[in-house]
Prior knowledge:
Elements: H1 2-20, H2 27-35, H3 41-58, H4 64-73, H5 76-92, H6 102-112, H7 119-140, H8 145-165, H9 177-180, H10 190-201, H11 203-212, H12 214-239, H13 244-247, H14 253-279, H15 284-294, H16 296-317, H17 321-326, H18 328-348, H19 363-378
Helix pairs in contact: 1-3, 1-16, 1-18, 3-10, 3-14, 4-7, 5-16, 7-10, 8-10, 12-14, 16-18
Amino acid sequence: MRILFISGVLLNHTVNIFxxxxxxxxxxxxxLRSIRLMIHFSRMGFMFMSGLVLTMNxxxxxxxxxxxxxxxxxxxWTYLIWNLIIFSLSIFFGxxxxxxxxxxxxxxxxxxxxxxxxxxxxxxxxxxLVFPIITWLFxxxxxxxxxxxxxxxxxxxxxxxxxxYKLWYxxxxxxxxxxxxxxxxxxxxxxxxxxxxxxxxxxxxxxxxVNKHIKIISIIFAGLSLGTIPxxxxxxxxxxxxxxxxARSAYQPYLMVFDTMAILFIFWLGKxxxxxxxxxxxxxxxxxxxxxxxxSFGIYLDQIIGLLLLEWVLAQLSLPDLLLLLLVPIGxxxxxxxxxxxAWIFYKVSPFAFLIGRPQLHWRDINKFWRYRTSExxx
Length: 379
């Protein structure tokens, strides 16, 4: 599932690069913008996977100090370094101008999580803080997990409705940034975290449900996916007269339902692949997918390199918009390949593994090595 969601994330971001290279008045530009919401479910899929994996590994954890120490130790340094890398690369490639006060601007980006796609790490670290509350809820009501999920769904539906139909029309510029920058607010994703936690605790039950109802799930998913086009062009842009950002926002009730059905469909695909892999463990495809799953977080982190390279290449070529539209799949494969290779190299070369959230060398290892070398010299 992870490799499917990360592939969708990279496709979504690749589409952004191509639309930025197009003339905003062309038909190809409108067509590409119209289908973009079809792949927007990958963001919420990533949030679902975060809730699932955390709950699977730490549901019965009672030492939250140790949990926070371990999780933040693997996240904070990654967040600091990748923000610095992205900030520097963006200046180098001319995406942004060099600020007069580099350090102050950099720190500002750290607090806002607004450099490219670093918001996910900021949200993840907030999830670590509230995760004990999620496990407490599931432990507190062990026989009412479905009710918790339904309540969370209703709250999410109400929240996305509030954001779309009310808060977009309110001047929130004077509010604290965390309250009006919905992409970095952990509570705007609460249902998908809880859905992931539920899936972890009721994995077999969910599998049976999805297998039993996969036909209706597939039909609803396909219908909602195709429905994103009239939803965006007719309802949002035409009837409601929303601006482009508002019309494509991830925080809309329709998209929340679509995201949920997409996750169920991807869950089924993941189970089908797992069954195939069990009989083909040595197949090249199995090995590639297995490696991709291990380094999926690294692919997310280093995607900026492939995206900036793609943006630079497109700027040099100055291609017509129709050709750009046709080249989207090739651009996506280019970004995916570059991101995969870089993450794999970081994964294999020990000192760089921390850049993809997989530290293989810890300070305690360095201290042990230093003490060993010191004792050797003394002897």
